[in-house]
Queue: 2 jobs
Job 1
Amino acid sequence: MGWALALHGGAGDIPRSLPTERREPRLATLRRCLDLGAAALRAGRPALDVVELVVRELEDCPHFNAGRGSVLTADGTVEMEAAVMEGATLRCGAVSGLSTVVNPVSLARLVMEKTPHIYLAFHGAEAFAREQGVETKDPSHFITEDNIERLRQAKEANRVQIDYTQPMKGQSPQETKAPVDDNSQTGTVGCVAIDAAGNLATATSTGGLVNKMPGRIGDTPLVGAGTYANAICAVSATGRGEEIIRHTVARDVAALMEHCGLPLRDAAARVVAGTPRGTTGLVAVSGAGEVCMAHNTTGMFRACATEDGYAEVGIWTDEADGNGASVSVRL
Amino acid sequence: MGWALAVQGAAGAISPSLPPELREPRLATLRRCLDLGAAALRAGRHALDVVELVVRELENCPHFNAGRGSVLTADGTVEMEASIMEGRTLRCGAVVGLSTVVNPISLARVLMEKTPVIYLAFDGAEAFARDQGVETKHPSYFITQDNIERLRQEKEANKLQSTKGQSPQEIPSPTDGNSRIGTVGCVAVDAAGNLASATSTGGHANKMAGRIGDTPIVGAGTYANALCAVSTTGMGEDIIRYTVARDVAAVMEHRGLPLRDAAVRVVAGMPRDTVGLVAVSATGEVCMAYNTIGMFRACATEAGHTEVGIWTDDVDANGESVSIRL
């Protein structure tokens, strides 16, 4: 069996025409995170440590919608959220509404480990961050030019917007096809892992939706929606938060495996196929060492690796760079 | 088949020695809510309307931990949360961190119906409330003497717990043993077979400011789909990690169990003294299950079964009880 790891950097209507300069830095980060995570697992680190360290890397990378690089609310501010969950114990931690915490996923872990609570939000979460002495920075640290531009465009179009398909500086709006569904979301980063001892863990982190109402919470910090792990599997979802919430995506994958005896791939495919097209992606690993990366969107930034040497990195399905039978499923 | 309705006003360590002056007002409110809900269902109102109106009544009653009468955070403030879900469509709405909104459940419904957002919290939720013109009052309106006293006792108990190793349950509370937790909720299936669930709470006494419990989390404290509608109460953190409300429906669906068996299985799988739930199914089944000492609850069906109670030996029912204590 052995360890396995999968991570994502957002599912959505990622256009094939995504220019190299917007694609390569993200793929490079995914590869780097994959290597970091695999090295940690090889070294015997517990799954919970691994998912946290991988998601921290993704949060620190400004090209993903989490931590620095988070998309902006309608007020031009950043409201970050994250969750972690440990499969063997069902311990979990979640945070929402952060504006100064450099690594929301680590604060979520502290909520889990240092308080009797699971979920802290907004002022209370920020106060806890200060009490715990986690690294914080001025809100401006998290705001990137790209996201200021995305927000401006979204307001102009007066709609909630996906990250990747809108024209950026220097591109004329006519050159870019309007998104098929401009309410679909991308963004969110996540990681699932099973370690050498068979422990499962998951972590997810995001800035949410471009131009979201301040105070809007998505699926990421909601246990059972965007993030879930038990003794059977660990799941991290991405996509349109509201759909993931109402379809309790992460929980349902585990429930199908448990109640219907489905292997991970079938359970994941069934759940993703059950949500509206273009809204959902997920990465998952099971207690039996299976790995699956499923999405019903155009693409999903993703990567995975297993102890027996399989590795895969990709965005769409036909270009996935894998050395073996792909574990990616597009619905 | 026909319509059915179940209401809860908290599960917990409700002492059987709870004096009448603390028991009767709550039971009276539960009966009144049951009558209101049943009358609405008889009149053909939609399940979503019914669960909202019942929960509004419970929020307005200062004896329950929701709306006015909400327990206080460690800072002595009120942070209310609520969620509502419609089974047929999976539409849902949830609000968190409210301090001035008189009826959090109604704000959750407005959110569900007027925006693409499911979940709104704190300042953003309060701003939305003002935008929508829902009724708001000064935060002091929600704070009752009982809850000021509860907070004082909680803080005292925490101090004692850390210095003497005494558990909070060992410190007798002059009000009731349900000093820390509580929630109100309602589930209904209407004459047309529509299912809905609604839950509302002030949370956990002495909670950290910003702490969110199970109540507003779809799948934890509240859930409804085409099979059943569930509203839970108890230890929020346990309900979250065990995704209680969602699991009842999943077990019905995947294991083909009737509502009662599904509810029992889920509740029995939880740590002792952590959870209670009320549920109805699309076929009109009703179940009120808990693994705590008691649960304030009531239910009614079109077929004429009604039941109101707290523990198992006090149940005032006409017909076979649908309550289960695990």
Job 2
Amino acid sequence: MADAAALGETARELREAYESGRTRSVAWRQAQLRGLLRLLQEKEAEAFRALHDDLGKHHAEAFRDEVGVLVKSANAALRELGRWMAPEKVWVPLIAFPASAQVVPEPLGVVLVFSCWNVPLGLSLEPLIGAVAAGNAVLLKPSELAPSTARFLGDNIGRYMDAAAVKVVQGGPEVGEQLMEHRWDKVLFTGSPRIARMVMAAASRHLTPVALELGGKCPCIFDSIAGARDLRFAVNRVVGAKWSPCAGQACIAIDYVLVEERFLPTLLKMLKSTLKSFFPEADHMARIVNARHFERLRALLKDTSVAASVVHGGSMDAKNLYIEPTILLNPPLDSAIMTEEIFGPLLPIITVKKIEDSVAFVRARPKPLAIYAFTGNASLRRRIEEETSSGSLVFNDAVVQYAIDALPFGGVGESGFGQYHGKYSFEMFSHRKAVMKRGYLIELMLRYPPWDESKVALMRHLYRFDYFSFVLRFLGLRR
Amino acid sequence: MGSDGEERAPEFGSMVGELREVYESGRTRDMEWRRSQLRGLVRLLEEKEEDIFDALREDLGKPRGEAFRDEVGVLVKSVKDKLQNLGKWAAPEKVETPLVAFPASAFVVPEPLGVVLIFSCWNLPIGLALEPLSGALAAGNAVVVKPSELAPSTAAFLAANIPKYLDSKVVKVVEGGPEAGETLMEHRWDKVLFTGSGRVGRIIMTKAAKHLTPVALELGSKCPCIVDWLDSQRDSQVAVNRIIGAKWSTCAGQACIAIDYILVEEEFAPILIELLKSTLKTFFAKPGHMARVLNERQFQRLGALLDDPRVASSVVHGGYFDPKTLSIEPTILLNPPLDSDIMTEEIFGPLLPIITVKKIEDSIRFLKSKPKPLAIYAFTTNEKLKRRIIEETSSGSVTFNDAIVQYGLDSIPFGGVGHSGFGQYHGKYSFEMFSHKKAVLKRSFLIEFMFRYPPWDDGKLGMLRHVFRFDYVNLFLALLGLRR
């Protein structure tokens, strides 16, 4: 556990490493990315073990949601690095001739990444990929609530990457607070809105730019699906997006489902049977991270009307921190389970008279990180697209948007601000510097005082790109 | 314009509520509505041009030529640019999906953030209000503009005319001082853009943190100007024109991207100073061609910079302060001490320190030791020096052989880095500043891979491995059971 002086020393070392200039070179950036790939490959078994220790994640889930995604992302960054780093030449109007302009990406400097406990490897290393690709020195602060993964990162990052420029610091909230006493060139925080407020307030003192990836209640609008095959696949994807990612403890997991009254029985039946086939034993689903969250989830069912709405599951094993997949039908909308982010294996289903009513339901609530809709109805699709707002919107699947490099990942409104993944990760940790070059060939005195009306008239033509009138007036052939 | 913050809070509450309601009605999403707002802005700028010139002259003594060059003319150009490009910017962008996701389509769809707040600054009171406003409207937001009370005529002009030319239910102007600003920040906004000092920027961001409101801050800085030896007499004259244009001709140096100080080789300094003196005489022969200092307080602040006797004795030109008219003549200083206020604080006035270096390359080290400014200028034809400046320094922008003009170029982003702020606008960046890029993915039920789901076994893990390496051949073989 680091103390204030040690943290100050860490920040100073990172600053020194950055100022030395070595993180700027393509070679350094490639070396970091390759180092990360080697780490993920050579230490895969240890990574799986850490994720199993911290969250009871099956190693296949750990690969699907964390390790595999990271391998993909690091390879993509290696492949695209040259393109991302290249200056972009932009258009310059004729009036500026001779002139050229470009947008040149440069690293922000020394950046700080706070990751979260539920995808502890992914939420640390995905941003790290972007930050090193962009040429920054990086300090990673993994969540102490996933201690094995934090220790895994602490032990291995320095071995596989440039230990003076990429560091890991261990500790809890106090360490986070102490870190925020320093100025960083950017801070990415993934976690709860409560802590995010403190991070942003602390960042204000230094005018440090921040990006916040927060939670939300991600709704899943489930329309009546015709066709047994399509229905089966849709339900696979719902179960795969609720209970399979970390037992629902994921910011983009489905939080609750909206379905038409008349279609409810079909959906419920399919959910139950799919749950049975996906989770024959407990170890195919993660456990609850710790006793505090277990109690939090248990408390959601304390409300008698909520408890009464349980239609499947509900049993809880405090010793093993295991809650079986649970489905609730129409718990009261003002209950905690319907107002707070659930982040657990409890799925409320809310029925509506007509599926179109879902749109108003979702709009009345804070903008979530993701909205999911299973529907073949083009007009419903269009309404959802145009009338709702969310970090992302996925039709006929869920959670998979996380793995698509070309799509920005991040929230809006209460779900946060700032986006990453793919090139957006690079941009999150970059500054786009505008560079303009002019020459002395042409000098237009109309730019300068002493002022007279003819100068204003000439400028008018120039700002309208009205070169013809400009030339005429300039030559005195027009007043 | 009341000073009682308490009284105004409920008033803003209902204003914000109205704006939210109108935004939720969907009116601002419509492209024709957005175009009509942009056209309205162009008409405002063209029809009310004389009133704008009057307001700028009252607030800052800005001459017409400068007001047109720096505020009105630039704005008309950039709003028209937005009208032209709006369709392109607002269009969904189709992006690649990996083959394993087939069939699928993915788009990045820009949408408005919602209800946004723009704080503008007193020195470019029209430009710093209306450029962001045009971006926010182009992006489909409802907007509140809070002009600076230190430029009251312009604030009044905006309050009177915005409702006439734009949709008054969707665009509001709030007049008032810091208390009004603080009260506004009690509410949640979908984005706040603040242009001004770092001190107030901190307050704004701290208040924004309570609501997790995203902010963009355009702050001040000391913009350095490196002046290298130039090849010819003519080139040197042109450079000096541009330096003067970027210092005294831009609101008497009261501009975030004005040249703050100069770095020049010892031997070249006397030549540069002579050229500056003679050109200043030509440009500002008669009064009324340079803006005045904003007010008593700024005048005192600038005067205090010369209190330090070491600084006062470094004055080589000008130095005359007229408290009656709040005018300060163009003043040049040669090597004031680097620890003096004039060399540590943003000057924002018509005082130009010249710092000499042994070799011009030494400027780079000098710059690197200072906070990152909004702009770095360098008058040089030395390609190696240019490259070093680009690679070894950091700033919002770098401009070679000219200054300030980058502000008028729509294709490059405008904004700071480090202590000069974060967030960029101008051109398409203005649109993006007030937009959310929504990721939209559409999939189908045609193909379903069971290896995505539990119950887990090594076969599924093997296939996932192939998927994440885009190793379709092996994936295919594995699916056919011909390989693990």
